[in-house]
Amino acid sequence: MAIKNSFSLLLSSLMVFALIAIPTISGNPSGTTWCVANPKAQDPVVQAALGWACQQSETYCSRIQRGQNCYSPNTLRDHASVVFNTYYQHNKIQAGSCDFNSAAVITHTDPSHDTCQFESVPDSQ
């Protein structure tokens, strides 16, 4: 019985360690989240959501214009991810700010690439 209890305690300790250590090992110790285009969403849904977000503020779409740092790659999903994330970072305290009619999803992996750095605001702990 003592061995069984010791094993249970060890297993519980390992699980707690994993919950604490894995986010740090994965390179996201702050728990920061980003909002990107949902790879499962249909293109017309993503396009409509992108148009809506750009109508909310020109600022959200300024970085995907020709000559700007997030223009390339010039694809619907890459541009949508930049815009969705910018909107999300400015509005993340509002529930559903990364939904866009299911055109977007939350990620814990920084989607920044080349010269395009995705804005990030650490989540409230």
Write the topology of this structure:
Layout: H1 2-25, E1 34-37, H2 43-56, H3 58-61, H4 76-91, E2 104-107
Helix pairs in contact: 2-4
What do you see in this structure?
This protein is mainly alpha-helical and 125 residues long. It has a domain at 42-107. Helix content is 46%, strand content 6%. It is built from 4 helices and 2 strands, in the order H-E-H-H-H-E. It has helices at residues 2-25, 43-56, 58-61, 76-91, and strands at 34-37, 104-107. A two-stranded antiparallel sheet has the order 1-2. Helix 2 (43-56) crosses helix 4. The radius of gyration is 19 Å and the shape is globular. The N and C termini lie far apart (39 Å). Mean pLDDT is 82; it is low at 4-26.
